[in-house]
Amino acid sequence: MNTTHSPTIAAIATASGRGGVGVIRLSGKDLLPFVQRITGGKIPKPRTALYTDFLDAHGKTIDNGLLLYFAAPASFTGEDVIELQGHGGQIVLQMLLQRCLELGARIAEAGEFTKRAFLNNKIDLAQAESVADLIDASSQQAARMAIRSLKGEFSNQIHQLVEDLITLRMLVEATLDFPEEDIDFLQSADAKGKLRALQNQLAHILTNAQQGAILREGMTVVLVGAPNVGKSSLLNALAGDDVAIVTDIAGTTRDTVREQITLDGIPIHMIDTAGLRQTNDIVEKIGIERSEKAVQNADIALILIDPDNGVNETTREILFRLPENLKRIEIQNKIDLRNEQPERVDNLSGSLKSGADTLIKLSAKTGAGLDLLKQALLAQIGWQGESEGLFLARTRHLNALETAQFELNLAADCGHHQIELLAEHLRLAQMACSEITGEFTADDLLGVIFSRFCIGK
Question: Binding residues for K(+), per the UniProt record (predicted)?
Fold first, then answer.
């Protein structure tokens, strides 16, 4: 699809607030007349900065700065693109944007510049999504992987996979089209070997995508346990700051306390919950309700247990409220008071009353054993560490790859007399892969994807 005849769009491309420089971005068709009206007749050379006044309808100066003109199709969107780089005050930027609207532009929708780049075949859908991922990156590792996707490394792998799928489909279709021939196209071309290679190729991409999804999405960890067992102290120790109030009074945490930390580039959303217990305190009840909601949406629960009390009635009530499929790590805190050494023990399923597979003994006060906990958290989500082959991936990418893998597995199970079925499974696998780069994508999905971008991008 081409957006050549789409209306001119304009937006403030810099973040809101006070700054040294503010940018207005425009995209549309034949924008040189537009430029002349806002500069008083000056005509810029493509890709050459022009220092000029930006004028209102009466020829009075709104602001002055640099004007950059990118002629179609050599621009980000594939259309004529203008950037007005002036001073970063919000009032002057709004005045300049209003002038652009007076000259016929309209306010750009969220992500519309990137959407036009996609529709004009400047980038594919995976690259378009990486623009938003780069802006939202919460760690250096995530930013590096977003750049890889933006430069097309993820897309190139998908394109190669699709090309190989098409080659195999051609062989299968040839067998279907010429059944009277004695030549066995599939056997002579080693179709089974090509299919096995495709399965291995897809499995490798899927593994990297799963790791990339971990880096992009991170994980949510809730701290649960009886009141005054040390949840807030552990949160503060992991965050490296006093984000939660710590006292000897049970029930000090009356609401969920949230903090994000980063482990090996992975964003970890930590939630210190109000003690899950029965209470008549109205405020504490609200906090407990929020805690229960946080537990339902969590990936991992850190269950703090006081070794002196063990799994008592209060702790059993908390464990009863946890979802059965929630991953669990048991924490025995305050080892400094018991003169114990930090320790991590794995593969304890069934032997711990908390239902956890891993036990960590640590001291939130001294920090002893915190590294063991951090390693256990990364292990629970399957993080294998950053490598050059990784790229950020979204849930829709994983779903598409898993669908393609499912179809290739079904194709591998087809017998010699099920050529039509084999052809259909290969076709569905190709369609699933093509959804990632946008070669086959429903319009409603595009609307959802680009609506999550910021204005001006």
Answer: 228, 247, 249, 252
